[in-house]
Every structure is written in C-alpha cells, then in structure tokens.
Design goal:
Structural class: alpha+beta
Radius of gyration: 21 Å
Distance between the termini: 6 Å
Number of helices: 14
Largest sheet: 5 strands, mixed
Number of strands: 10
CATH class of the largest domain: Alpha Beta
Number of domains: 2
Length: 307
C-alpha cells in the first residue's frame, strides 16, 4: 500500500481551501509523474520567502561550522556568503531585481542587528528534514529552518524565519499551529527542545522613513503549554488522516468530495482562481492546465510498503 506523505504546508492549504489543496496536490498535470500543479509564475511573497530562506540557510550554515566563541570576522564572512546567494539571484531573475535589492538591504540589516545576540548560540539542523510516522501508512514530514542552543546553559530552541510585509501580532502568533506542532513532534521523536521562536523579518520599506530593524525585525518565543501542544497535534493529525483518506479515493472521486472556500479574501490571490472558476462553470481547462501550470515541484519523497 502506498504511504501517504502529508506535510504542514499540505495541511495548511487544506484548511485554507480544500479545492486549492486538491489543485496543488491532486490534479494531474499532463507532463507530471506525480499529482499536483503549481503556477509557472511565483508570487512576489513566495519568491521572496524562498530566496530569503535560502540566503539565511547559507548564513547560518557557515556559522554552524565555526568554533565558538565567534568573532566579528565570522559574521562578516557569513554575511558575504548570504549576499552572494542574493546577487546570484539578481543575474538569474533580472525581472525581480528591485525586490532582490530590497532583500539584500533587509538581510544586511539583519546580520548587523542580531550579531551580538547570535554570538551566544550554537546553530544546527539548518533546513533539516524530520519525519514522524503517525499511523501505519501515514508520515508527517517537516523541515526545520534552524535549531539553536545557548552556550551558557544548553537551552535549545527551534527557529522559524518569516518574511512579512507586516509582522505578526500577538494574537496571530498565539493561534498558529506550526511551531507547537514542530515542538511536539520533535519531542515525540526523542529530541530535547525547550521552546520555539518566530524570527519575524519585515521587508516593507516605508517612504516616510528609512528601514529600521529595531521596528521591522522581531524574535518572538512561542512558549506553548503542554496542553496546547497536545491539542494542536490531535487537531493536525485528524486533518492529516482526512487528507490521506481523500488521496486513497483517486483524483476523480477526491475532486468530487472537496469544497471551495470561495470568498474574496482567499480567492483574490489564489494561483488556481482561473481554473477553479472554469471548473465551477463546467468548462474545459485542459489547455490552461498544460500551459499556465507546471507539475508540482514541492513535496517530500513518497515511500511505499507491502502491508
């Protein structure tokens, strides 16, 4: 029986809109081996987030190979490596030059702003994948941006970078399941992790003032209770099992079972809006699927077993 590999992003998309999730992970592209579509043009937010994560991975990877105590020279080299990633992107995506130049400035500020704080930590598990088998045929994979351990006492945190136009509010942080889920799952796997932190990086530069990292960057600890972690895991695993059952139906029956959220907040920036509307109207969208979308490149490798 084929093992279901269902990630945090899958669950997040499913809870946002079941139909959007089906297009991303269930609808077959004529040129793809695995089900799922993605737009050929990344949104600005997704492009910036992907590139920013790649640059920070290079930054912290270099520091992870250095022996503490760190020197300013260590951080200078790490920043240069991060900037190299960004400058390469300028040559590869000239149409995104303005955005990338802005990101270069933001992450230059980031390196300076957090230098003294980061000297207190050892870094590991950068862009590292973990997996938990939550059922016989269902695996939950997730990728950690960073784990850091304080040198003075061994206190250990999971860190998740977020590139945002507007930093999360306290209420937004309090309700989001991602880091409580990661904490609970890592502990289930036997890892010692004391807490988790959102590394919030604002990229908006206001015309009324210069970019100020003291205002536009914030690291916020989550501090979830044991009850919060357990409830989050139960809710998330329930959705994972629901997705796995839908996948077992096959694409045609799966498509027939899922609903559209269908409101302006969700739909206005959805990459699948055009084909969703054409499906709703009973129109043929096979040409649009073939030429406007590519096979989904996101995901984790799928294994199988003989049970």
């Amino acid at each position: 029986m084929k093992r279901a590999i269902i990630s945090h992003s899958e669950v997040d998309q499913f809870l946002t809109c079941e139909r959007k999730h089906f297009y991303a992970f269930g609808k077959q592209h004529p040129e793809g081996d695995n089900p799922g579509l993605e737009s050929k043009t990344l949104s600005d937010g997704l492009f910036r987030g992907n590139l920013g994560h790649k640059a920070l991975a290079e930054y912290y990877s270099y520091l992870s190979y250095r022996m503490p105590p760190y020197t300013d020279a260590d951080f200078d080299v790490a920043a240069e490596k991060m900037q190299t990633v960004l400058m390469k992107a300028v040559s590869e995506f000239p149409e995104r030059t303005e955005m990338i130049v802005g990101l270069i400035a933001v992450l230059g500020n980031y390196s300076e702003h957090y230098r003294e704080e980061d000297k207190q930590w050892v870094f590991s598990a950068i862009e590292t994948e973990f997996r938990e088998d939550i059922d016989k045929d269902i695996t939950f994979p997730f990728k950690i941006d960073l784990i850091r351990q304080r040198m003075t006492d061994g206190y250990t945190e999971v860190v998740d970078h977020k590139f945002l136009a507007n930093l999360y509010t306290g209420d937004e942080i309090a309700i989001q399941p991602q880091l409580p889920k990661y904490l609970g799952t890592l502990r289930n796997l036997g890892y010692r992790v004391d807490n988790a932190t959102y590394d919030l990086i604002g990229h908006r530069v206001l015309k009324t003032r210069a970019y100020d990292p003291a205002v536009s960057m914030r690291r916020v600890q989550v501090n979830p209770t044991k009850q919060r972690i357990n409830r989050t895991l139960r809710e998330q695993y329930r959705v994972i099992r629901q997705i796995a059952l839908l996948k077992e139906l096959g694409p045609e029956l799966w498509e027939d079972q899922v609903n559209r959220t269908a409101n302006s907040f969700n739909c206005k920036n959805c990459p699948f809006l055009a084909i969703c509307v054409s499906d709703l109207n009973g129109e043929d969208n096979s040409v649009a699927v073939k030429y406007d979308y590519a096979p989904n490149s996101y995901g984790y490798s799928v294994g199988s077993n003989d049970d």
